[in-house]
Predict the 3D structure of the following.
Amino acid sequence: MPEAVHLRTALPAERELLQALQTRASLKNPGDRDALLQHPDAIDVPLEQIEAGHVFVAESAGTIVGFAAVIPRTDGNAELDALFVEPGCWRRGIGRQLVGHAVEVARARGAEALHVIGNPHAEAFYRSSGFETTGTFKTRFGGGLLMRRLLPPG
Ligand SMILES: CC(C)(COP(=O)(O)OP(=O)(O)OC[C@H]1O[C@@H](n2cnc3c(N)ncnc32)[C@H](O)[C@@H]1OP(=O)(O)O)[C@@H](O)C(=O)NCCC(=O)NCCS
């Protein structure tokens, strides 16, 4: 039986470890590899986000297997600013669990919607996690999808 996955707030000392996980996950997206290798600065988990308590990790048997960041937007809603799962752990529900936590965090802050600029490779994942596409966004690596999950009071 797979180990249980627990979520907790990330620690500043874990920043490099999270960036390494982000690199491994991003390199697995077909088509993103070359752009990423040319722009390694795209890998960044801002220390300020960790220190502000906006980053949380999924941990299994003492190992971090994924993380996500939820930051406030100027319109009062919330932005899912990062979501990465260790490639060897994909399709075990960890991404969905991280989104569930992000939704709780956003709701607790009074947000009425959780937004994300989705990598097109993750569209099926976001759709299955309750997000809808509202538009497109040009990033320096190509197209991103503007996606949103409404958070009715519950
Ligand atoms: C996107 C990502 C976070 C998903 O994490 P995950 O833990 O594998 O996702 P889950 O196991 O919770 O998947 C939940 C559901 O999403 C859908 N889904 C997930 N990955 C999918 C894929 N590659 N293709 C199609 N559907 C997918 C499925 O419906 C899945 O349910 P199922 O496994 O019961 O069929 C992970 O693949 C990742 O880190 N990718 C690289 C980084 C990235 O693109 N992050 C998003 C940045 S915007």
In short: The beta strands are 5-9, 55-60, 63-72, 78-85, 113-118, 132-139, 142-150. Residues 5-150 form a domain with the Aminopeptidase fold (CATH 3.40.630.30). The CA atoms of residues 85 and 95 lie 6 Å apart. The mean pLDDT is 94.
